């Protein structure tokens, strides 16, 4: 024997199992369950989003009869911190959670170029891969000195390079470049880091690889042009050889009689007055003896 008992719904209970399904840079997907199973009418939820960095609040309303509710919170900022509260519209007990959005990614291709008394940091613009980043926000540069175990803030810039001076001999430095932090050092981007050995010792392997790739980018086209020039030279020499061969063949064919089996030379009429008395030279034959005067 069994009996079915249906409990009286209590609208003062909080939503159950509130959690984040997906967290991105500018939005978050949250999910929860109704205070009791199988609601028999539409339930109005209030979703309050408190920005802990900007100190602002936003409230959204969600009306549904589903036991499981999924909602997307939009217009968030990368690297932000948010406190989310979900409760029924009648101000019942609440369910809360924290959301940290994904920060902006690190700049690409950070490298070091060494000058006489300073170094230059270069990197690619973050706007190339981050549509939410504006160049006017700029970047900030940090330096860590491993010898004294201290991190120093070098400054910020809206350019894609930064000059660093007054480095000390014998110190090893690590440089970091990231999207500039907002609102009291919060909402920062992910840093791109690079190790720089003591002054005069050169860059680390990553920087050396960057320089090697730059050299290769110059050497490879030059080698290709040399190969093209060498191939063109061979073609020119081959054409000249064929031209000379054709000229010699034409000359030989015009001065040889296959019927007589002997060479044919000019009679000398077109050589001028000085050669009028010169005897005409005819072809030689094996049947005619050679007489030397």
UniProtKB/TrEMBL annotation:
UniProt cross-references to InterPro entries, sorted A to Z: FN3_dom, FN3_sf, Ig-like_fold
Domain Fibronectin type-III: 14-109
Highest taxon of the lineage: Eukaryota
Pfam families: fn3
Key words of the record: Membrane, Transmembrane, Transmembrane helix
Residues that span the membrane, as ranges: 215-238
Keyword tRNA processing in record: no
Keyword Transferase: no
Xref: SMART domains: FN3
Full protein name: SORL protein
Taxonomic source organism: Odontophorus gujanensis (marbled wood quail)
């Amino acid at each position: 024997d069994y009996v079915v008992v249906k409990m009286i719904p209590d609208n003062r209970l909080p939503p159950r199992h509130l959690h984040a399904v997906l967290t991105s840079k500018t939005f978050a997907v949250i999910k929860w369950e109704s205070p009791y199973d199988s609601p028999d009418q539409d339930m109005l939820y209030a979703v309050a989003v408190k920005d802990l960095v900007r100190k602002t609040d936003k409230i959204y309303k969600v009306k549904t009869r589903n036991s499981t509710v999924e909602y997307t919170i939009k217009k968030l900022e990368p690297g932000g911190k948010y406190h989310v509260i979900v409760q029924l519209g009648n101000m019942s007990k609440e369910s809360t959670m924290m959301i940290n959005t994904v920060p902006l990614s690190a700049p690409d291709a950070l490298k070091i170029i060494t000058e006489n008394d300073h170094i230059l940091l270069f990197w690619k613009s973050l706007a190339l891969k981050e549509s939410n980043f504006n160049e006017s926000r700029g970047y900030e540069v940090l330096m860590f000195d491993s010898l004294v175990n201290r991190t120093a803030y070098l400054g910020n810039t809206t350019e894609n390079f930064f000059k660093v001076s007054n480095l000390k001999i014998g110190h090893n430095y690590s440089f970091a470049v990231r999207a500039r932090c907002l609102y009291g050092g919060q909402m920062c981007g992910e840093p791109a880091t690079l190790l720089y050995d003591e002054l005069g010792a050169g860059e680390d392997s990553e920087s050396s690889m960057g320089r090697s790739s730059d050299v290769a980018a110059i050497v490879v086209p030059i080698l290709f042009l040399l190969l093209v020039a060498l191939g063109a030279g061979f073609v020119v020499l081959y054409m000249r050889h064929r031209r000379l061969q054709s000229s010699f063949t034409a000359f030989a064919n015009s001065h040889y009689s296959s019927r007589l089996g002997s060479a044919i030379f000019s009679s000398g009429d077109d050589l001028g007055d000085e050669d009028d008395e010169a005897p005409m030279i005819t072809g030689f034959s094996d049947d005619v003896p050679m007489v030397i005067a």
